[in-house]
Amino acid sequence: MSTTPRFSRVLLKLSGEALAGAKGHGIDSTILSTMAREIASVVRSGIQVAVVIGGGNLIRGVQASAGGMNRAAGDSMGMLGTVMNCIAMQDALDKENCPSVVMTGVRMEPIAEFFDRRKALSLLSSGSVVLFGAGTGNPFFTTDTAAALRAIETECQAIMKATKVDGIYTADPKKDSTATRFTTISYKEILQRGLAVMDTAATALCQEHAMPILVFEMIEGNLTRSLTDTSVGTLVTC
Prior knowledge:
- The protein has 238 residues and is of the alpha/beta class.
- The protein has helices at residues 16-20, 29-44, 61-66, 71-95, 117-125, 143-153, 187-193, 200-208, 222-226; strands at 9-14, 48-53, 100-104, 113-114, 129-133, 158-163, 184-186, 213-217, 234-237.
- The protein has one domain: 3-Layer(aba) Sandwich (Carbamate kinase).
- 39% of the residues lie in helices and 18% in strands.
- The radius of gyration is 17 Å and the shape is globular.
């Protein structure tokens, strides 16, 4: 196993559900602290980290619209949920003495800064974590698509997608005992197989811009390991 990181600037995509833990909703302070501690450790090792967090632990636009709410209104509420998660993560990073800035796709100063690509690049280069909230700033786009867009805009070398499983499988390993894990897989094969890695728009955007996606299990220490150990997770490439 190499000790040399395979990427020097990454975008970490976390689901809101991951912050909720076993409760299934809200924010589990223990999980939040653990994630922040690991992000801070990675940053101290010299790797630049941007973060996009979903808002599913608080609200989902799709679920709200299923209940009769206008989809655009539901998505707007979902965007606010992602900002709440970013602010929580920023507070946790503060406790780790790790500098961070929250940037959002819609204006909401002074709570957060409006997204500025050049400033985000400068912050990342200086060792600050940049937390991107409010998705793309538009309804009908998921935080997967926001992660792909922000990773491309800020010249990241890969998207690190933390999940509840240790990579991409031929089928759901919880339902199919014969499912096998891919070490690497192409964007084309993901789309052809209909694998639920990221939504179709996000996967297509990554494919168009040759943005690698590393899918790994978000357990303590795994973010650090995944950056040097090629046996961890599944890498999606051309």
